[in-house]
Design goal:
mainly beta; 22 strands
Length: about 525
């Protein structure tokens, strides 16, 4: 018995030391290799599945959007036509109209409560808590009468509970903001390389729309009222095609609070906008030309203007790296009154989207628009922003694309499909200290107290922090909560000291917004 125990102990020790234990070690090694092989097989299989999912997603994307690729830069996603709240009647869930594919309908209501403390757009520093209400309705007919199509959109915008007089930024009661007839020929220009029809469209009537990055042509979705035009729009191709050209010949409409809007007879706005998407995996190019002609009249102080802009925008994603970019360069020339117009502006943004479930995106951007350097010469260098919107220049609506130098950093993320958050920090300088800061002391009417022609008031406008959270309660209700804190710079403080005998060091803007759609 003692010998047997000794033998067992020897075998165990030899196994630990690797002596006389070759078979057990080989067996263990074989099991490890098999396990490793199985693990590699599972990894390869998983990688193949993920690769196939990406391929399928790309195929589905191309089938739906064709050559079009969304820029990804902050705040530049255009409001589509028809607008996002519109649904095809066959997809409203109403059984009795499930086959009515030729009719688009929409009904949307938006409510916003604002808290504004020391708003620098106002001449007095008080707390204002307006309630903004906006209702829109849309009806569009397509396909059944082709090539004839029609659409109409009405809006009712009102403001309550404010300490200030109403103005056309917030009030425009019962107005037709879009109403046009269209000739639409689906295959007029053949097909692109993906086999997609390249249509031709001609619209005549009243419009609200957005082009490019919205900074020069936008309907100003954030504002309670809308930029509208009357005239002609021609479209060669569409967003899905490899190339497209948009042609515009329009008269802007003057918003009237309680009457129907009227055309600004002295002004014509025209545009030719190209889109080249053939290289979408690297870059989408958008060369464009804009022109604004204004005849002298009593309504504009007898100042004639003839402003032209040539520009090029390029944006894209750098493969699967997570990096994307967006750049836009504009040069303007012409005449403004007795002065020559010579101005320029540009924007640039670079962003990175992290590989994370929340899709966090960190971006840095810079925007510049020239200002008039010498108020006494025969040259006007103030950049013309045409009909662009103020956001995303500043969340509090203080800054526009004119006489500005503005760097900004921003973080965006999506904790869920229903919940999105973005926050940013920006700084603002005047491009020219001798030109105006447009939105200072100008609501509801311009006071002229927003410029120091000597340049002695400085050029630093201020800096701001903003944050916004958006949550989709259900398919019909969207909610937004936002806050912005603005710290005034030397220019704002010096101008306020002169105009009101004191200045505000800081301003606060908080808002709660809800949008209700009649259809899912």
């Amino acid at each position: 018995m003692k010998n047997q125990n000794h033998l067992l102990l020897t075998l165990v020790i030899n196994g630990w030391l690797g002596v006389g234990g070759a078979l057990p070690v080989e067996a263990a090694t074989g099991k490890e290799m098999a396990a490793q092989t199985e693990l590699e097989r599972q990894r390869n299989e998983k990688a193949q599945i993920l690769a196939r999912k990406k391929e399928v997603a790309k195929e589905e994307y191309i089938k739906k959007y064709g050559y079009y690729k969304e820029p990804g830069s902050y705040g530049t996603k255009r409001i589509t036509a028809p607008p996002p709240y519109v649904r095809n009647l066959s997809k409203t869930g109403i059984a009795s109209v499930k086959d009515v594919t030729w009719l688009d309908v929409g009904l949307d209501f938006r409510f916003r409560y604002e808290y504004r403390d020391a708003d620098i757009r106002r001449k007095t520093a008080v707390v204002d808590e307006p309630l903004l209400l906006r209702t829109r309705a849309y009806l569009g007919i397509k396909e059944i009468l082709d090539p004839f199509r029609f659409a109409i959109e009405v809006e009712d915008a009102r403001r309550y509970n404010s300490q200030f007089a109403t103005d056309v930024r917030d009030v425009n009661e019962f107005e037709i903001i879009s109403g046009y007839g269209e000739l639409y020929f689906k295959n007029a220009l053949g097909e692109d390389d993906l086999g997609q029809a390249r249509p031709f469209s001609l619209k005549v009537g009243r419009f609200n729309f957005e082009f490019l990055d919205r900074r020069l042509i936008g309907n100003n979705e954030w504002r309670n009222t809308t930029n509208t035009f009357q005239g002609f729009q021609a479209m060669l191709g569409e967003d899905k095609n490899d190339w497209q050209v948009d042609l515009l010949a329009l008269q802007p409409l003057e918003r009237l609070k309680y009457d129907f809007d009227e055309t600004v007879d002295e002004q014509w706005f025209s545009a030719a906008i190209g889109h080249w998407r053939k290289w979408r995996d690297i870059i989408t190019l958008e060369p464009y030309y804009l022109a604004l002609r204004q005849d002298a009249s009593i309504n504009n102080g007898f100042v004639s203007r003839d402003i032209h802009a040539t520009a090029l925008r390029g944006y894209g994603w750098i493969g699967d790296s997570g990096f994307n970019y967006d750049a836009n360069v504009i040069y303007q020339f012409g005449t403004s009154g007795t002065q020559d117009h010579d101005a320029y502006g540009y924007t640039a943004e670079v962003g990175y989207t992290f590989d994370h479930a929340w899709k966090p995106r960190l971006s840095a951007s810079y925007g510049y628009a020239s200002g008039d350097r010498n108020p006494n010469d025969n040259k006007n260098e103030r950049f013309e922003r045409f009909f662009g919107f103020a956001r995303p220049w500043s969340a509090d609506d203080y800054v526009i694309f004119e006489n500005i130098s503005a760097p900004k950093i921003r973080l965006e993320f999506e904790p869920s499909k229903k919940f999105r958050v973005d926050t940013g920090y920006g700084l603002y300088w005047l491009a020219s200290a001798t030109d105006r800061f447009n939105n200072l002391n100008t609501v509801p009417e311009s006071t002229g107290l927003n410029r120091d022609k000597t340049g002695n008031s400085g050029d630093f406008v201020g800096h701001s922090f903003d944050i916004r959270a958006r949550y989709k309660l259900n398919p019909r209700i969207d909610t937004t909560l936002g806050y912005s804190h603005f710290t005034t710079g030397e220019f704002v403080r010096n101008i306020q000291d002169k105009s009101r005998g004191g200045h505000s060091d800081n301003t606060d803007f908080f808002y709660v917004e809800a949008s209700l759609n009649a259809f899912e």
